Amino acid sequence: MFSIRSANFSQDNARVLAIFREYIASAPVSLEYQQNEQEFVALDGKYSLPNGVVLLIWKDNEVVGCGAFRRVDAQICEMKRVYVRPTERGHQLGEKLVNKLMEIAKENGYQRMCLDVLADFETARRLYVRLGFEPCDPVSYNPIPGTHFLGRNL
């Protein structure tokens, strides 16, 4: 029913942009500080292996979720934009997606994965903690009060 696959930017770019924008719109605060539209112009560079990856969750022929990681340095990557459409939650897709992201990161030589999660995304934070993420220093700029910065060794 569901499958998780790496995005092929030549075929999936419009789908990636659509689900990323859906994720951004779901945030309870403005994420404009991330300058997303500028980043979207060069997704295939920042999010292509070994620098990073975008995974899409498919239900039949429809994208219903996403997740990504990007390179911080030779040992550390940052998980980004983990999102499952509300109508598809409750199938452990977030957990499967995060585990797949960690697996791919480790296969590509990363030793540590970090992330930030907004205080309003408490369900996501609990998932990350259950998967072994612990408080850590930020690896990227996030000015939103209450944001949790988490990391774990791979």
Automatic annotation (TrEMBL):
<protein>
    <submittedName>
        <fullName>GCN5-related N-acetyltransferase</fullName>
    </submittedName>
</protein>
<dbReference type="GO" id="GO:0016747">
    <property type="term" value="F:acyltransferase activity, transferring groups other than amino-acyl groups"/>
</dbReference>
<dbReference type="InterPro" id="IPR052777">
    <property type="entry name" value="Acetyltransferase_Enz"/>
</dbReference>
<keyword id="KW-0808">Transferase</keyword>
<dbReference type="Pfam" id="PF00583">
    <property type="entry name" value="Acetyltransf_1"/>
</dbReference>
<dbReference type="InterPro" id="IPR000182">
    <property type="entry name" value="GNAT_dom"/>
</dbReference>
<dbReference type="InterPro" id="IPR016181">
    <property type="entry name" value="Acyl_CoA_acyltransferase"/>
</dbReference>
<feature type="domain" description="N-acetyltransferase">
    <location>
        <begin position="2"/>
        <end position="154"/>
    </location>
</feature>
